[in-house]
What does this fold into?
Amino acid sequence: MKRLILFVVFLSFNLTANSILIKSGQIHDGQGDSFIGDILITDNKIVEVGKFLNSSSAKVIEARGKPVTPGLISPISNLGVVEINALDVTNDDEPDFFGPGFSVFNAFNPHSTLIPWNRSNGVTSSISTPGYSSHIFKGMGSFFLLDGNLEITGDPDVAMYSRIGATGGSRAETIQIMESMFELAKNKDGVELEDLLETTFASSLDMQLQDIEALARVVNKEIPLVLEVNRASDILQALRLKKEFDLDLVLMSVEEAPLVLDQILASGVSVIIDPMDNIPDSFDELASNIKLGGILSNAGIKVMFSTQRSHNYHLMRQGAGNAVAHGMTYQAGISGMTSIVADVFNIQDRGSIKEGYFADIVIWNEDPLEPSAYPTTVIINGSEISLETRASRLTERYTDKRDIPSSYKH
Amino acid sequence: MLLIYSCSEGIEVSQSSTVDAAVKSTSFDRDPFESNYKPLASERTLIKSVNLYDGLGNEFSNFDVLFDNGIIEEIGKDIVDGNATIIDAKGKWLTPGIIDIHSHMGVYPAPGVRTSSDGNEATSPITAEVWAEHSVWTQDPQFSLALKGGVTAFHVLPGSANLMGGRGATFKNIPRNTIHDMKFPGAPHSLKMACGENPKRVYGNRGSAPSTRMGNMAGYRKAWINASDYQRRKNEYTSKSDEAKELIDPPKRNLELDTLAGVLDGEILVQNHCYRADEMAMMIEMSKEFDYKITAFHHAVEAYKIADLLADEGICGALWADWWGFKHEAYDMVPANIAIVDQARGGKGCAIVHSDDEVGIQHLNQEAAKALSAGLRAGYEISKARAIKWITSNPAKAAGILDQTGTIEIGKDADLVIWSKNPFSVYALAEYVFIDGAEAFVRGEKQTQPVTDFDLGIINPSDERASL
It folds into this structure.
């Protein structure tokens, strides 16, 4: 059936079809072991992955044995919603009014300079998330394709964000409030939402209709809750909440996870970690260790990667590389930046090099886990993307040796 | 016994000081907190069949390096020595110890809590009188993490809230109980200066000067005028005859101006936090106005815009491979920044990869790999043997310790790292880190890895934090 549909599409668009054939790449498809093969792309989809593929109409890109991966998906970023961190007028990730109901989606700026920079480094899509919030729930993150088009390709409100850990007050209270908010959102008695908001609890937290609706999506398992948590005892609390409220839970940071490895594995949650952060930054993360990625992944837990550095989300590659250097398998390193992110956040038909999937593909000059690696070709939704960035323009200007003011070099 | 002796000695000095008070107040102890560093016990060691980058720009394959009593004795092929402990390092790589010219370890230790965040005396825009070493917490677990990344020496600076933030100091990376036992012997102090957004934000938000970049400039210049005056009065006094000195009071010591006069005298090196090219150019002009030298611009995201000027002035750029955008003055990042600074005026530039970060300091080799890759993409021909200078000899030069360390040369301190693979690879791990010829860190050998007091029994009483 699927094959038939593809065939029809192919026929009907044959004359105008935009086809690309990647020849002889070392394909890391995001699923299994790598292999040498070809990839045929027509319009925005991968139509065939195999050996000795031919196409008379396709533009051929010779990969010559270089690594080919799915476009990287940043599972947590502020792409498109923050331009310069310390300049608040360029930030749209921090809500003033809403709590869990806050959505970053409408703020997304496809013209942010971060987007060409990150995609030229291999990140083809991302989940952009809320930043600091005074609420216990920070709001919802959205999925975006980094093609730079003003017509945004994305998916609003794909996950909710919160954290358990050291506060000025007590983490016990954080957990109590979370529990009460989940109870409220479960709305077991089927009360009108307006009436729920009238309750002392909801009104004292300044909860709005949008907040309740968003939390209802969490307790109804429509979207995952991404909970930043580090201390071993807090991780167990998070797992208890998952069980009690039947949540689709993703844990983030989890620096003390090796102390509660069995419980995490049994719960089936996946995790987002920064493998390079081995600093005991707080008393919540004393067990911080550079082997974290390997320990979790080798135990069978799905691991995705974040990076401490704002603006450089591609540096999850360096994080994955360090995780591999300290015991993670290479394949887990690649899939943690691609297919696992797509699976966990229900991003349809992306994150793998697979027939029928959207063609978000990167060809690298060398092993993409090496810090020195860079993409030679980036394809998003079947289109080859320019690798030019503001940084490359500045580099050209300042390596131009003509004896005229730099302002005339363009 | 020792303690009593020290105390009595102290009393004796203070009694005698009344006799020659005038002399003492001007020929004061210029480094009253001097290094008491002693190397760890070491063995005569011969590293065999290693590939090496010497930190001078050369690469050698299958070389041997012999060191004894903490000093490199011989470098070459097929060295035979019956008395040395032999380490077979075939297929592995040897580099000089990694040096970070910009660290806040100890002054911003982990955990990063209020009670030990001692890196910024942000109470006045000019605090040249404070010394970073007086804030360093010796039990900071970050030291040993950096050691695992091959870091053998590091320069600790005060933060950048102030125009003149105080003195920085250099340390050997062997965690010990007192800071005097860690200070790098003979290393000069630095003066931390800061341009741009930070000082004007910190003080401007309080409604006090500086609140603008022109306010920043006025602030430095006022301080240098005071320093010049202090230096002149001090020199006038010291140039007088002993008889003349007895007739007048010596100028009163001033801690702030001691530091600034030390810069004017060329004894204290200026490490200048500065992002924007136009501001760096102004800082250079100001250094000529008051006749002092800037050793390095730190962070300098726009250094590539004035790379030739930096090379002409002999100023190093201490830079990140790719940080940007966290503030406005860091917006114009180019990944070839380090390479462009390095290659200025036909390779006369001084480029340094610095960390300013407790994670980055553990992977300076990877940061150099990124910077090198970007330089090659920008069309420069730069060898790995040259790029290793960015994290070894160039930071050693900027810290004023190049005579002792930073290269693999006969007569230098045996501060060395054996890497499992080529150090420009993410998969390379430091297997041995030698400081003054002693095994400061050996991967896989628990007894040869420092564990701070902080690490001990803090999660589980019977365990060490770092060993998990």
Observations:
- The two ends of chain A are 53 Å apart (CA to CA).
- Chain A has a mean pLDDT of 94.
